[in-house]
Amino acid sequence: MSDPVVPRIVLLFSGKRKCGKDFLTERLLQRLTTDKAQIIRISEPIKRSWAEKLGLDLKELLGDGPYKERYRKEMIEWSDQKRAEDYGYFCRQACQGLTKEIGVVSDIRRKTDVRFFREQYGARVKTVRIVASEGTRVERGWTFQNGVDDVQSECDLDDVTEWDLLVENDSGADVDDILARIESLVQ
Ligand SMILES: Nc1ncnc2c1ncn2[C@@H]1O[C@H](COP(=O)(O)OP(=O)(O)OP(=O)(O)O)[C@@H](O)[C@H]1O
């Protein structure tokens, strides 16, 4: 069996709901191309396990529609229990899909997620924090939800200040400039 591919760079993206993690990482992938780069999500193995457990439609759960929101709170609670036993439980599964030179993880939410990737990939890891004002996030459809916006999965990284790159993604932001700055991290 051949050795698993170790990515040259692993970019970790975090930021609060509707700050633009999916938007920016998808645009980044277009620039980097799928030959060189790929996006993985820690939420993928969480949703896969959850869908199997309850017999739900995984495609709907992975999408951005109401299905995902309906189960978000319960999935957070259930996945937190799993993480309490093993903080790398879902990160490890997500990493199994890493086969390209540049890995982009689009949904880092906890200090233990960062810890896992640093332990696994060392100096190959670069962190990107995306911020957007509450006003912008509301325009994009965000509403405060008890049990979602006030729990660890949303707030654990709020007090972290050391990021390789901090990006402001408010409405009217210069997306090309943002993407160029992110790209300079992977040179
Ligand atoms: N710079 C931008 N310009 C235009 N639209 C944007 C920009 N950033 C984000 N959006 C839009 O805002 C909405 C929310 O963004 P996105 O889904 O990327 O957020 P997210 O951080 O991934 O949210 P969640 O944590 O809820 O999954 C999407 O419709 C997206 O297209």
TrEMBL record:
Biological or metabolic pathway of the protein: Isoprenoid biosynthesis; isopentenyl diphosphate biosynthesis via mevalonate pathway; isopentenyl diphosphate from (R)-mevalonate: step 2/3
Annotated signal sequence range: none
Main location: cytoplasm
Keywords: ATP-binding, Cholesterol biosynthesis, Cholesterol metabolism, Cytoplasm, Kinase, Lipid biosynthesis, Lipid metabolism, Nucleotide-binding, Steroid biosynthesis, Steroid metabolism, Sterol biosynthesis, Sterol metabolism, Transferase
Location within or outside the cell: Cytoplasm, Cytosol
Enzyme Commission designation: 2.7.4.2
Xref: InterPro entries: P-loop_NTPase (IPR027417), Pmev_kin_anim (IPR005919)
NCBIfam families in UniProt: Pmev_kin_anim
Protein name: Phosphomevalonate kinase
